[in-house]
Amino acid sequence: MSQPIYKHPLLIAYIIVSIAHLIGEQIQLESLILYTKPLLMPLLALWLWQQTQAERGVVRPFLILGLLFSCGLGSFLIAQLCYVVAFVK
Fold it and tell me: How confident is the model at residue 1 (pLDDT cuts 50, 70, 90)?
């Protein structure tokens, strides 16, 4: 059963930082963007980690997806290196 939103302080922080970041983007306030952008993913990752600690069965699909993503990223890196080698020759 899902908990009310006020019991998720990291999710509330993420929503607040997201809204602040979107406002900064809209009004083109570089200082606000500079401070909010690096906070978005760590807050979301911490919230997800906190949620998955309560339900260990949820972690396994994320690990599989992470492994698949890493394989795809590695393939992309190899392709880029091949491109650089071919371009240099």
Answer: very low
Flag whether the pTM goes above 0.70: no
Helix (H, G, I), strand (E, B) or coil at 79: helix
Half-sphere exposure (Cβ direction) of 19: Cα atoms closer than 13 Å: 5
Residue 21, CB-side half-sphere exposure with 13 Å CA sphere: 14
Check if the beta carbon of residue 33 is closer than 8 Å to that of residue 25: yes
The domain limits of the chain are 1-54, 57-89
Output DSSP code: residue 28. T
Distance CA 22, CA 28 (A): 9
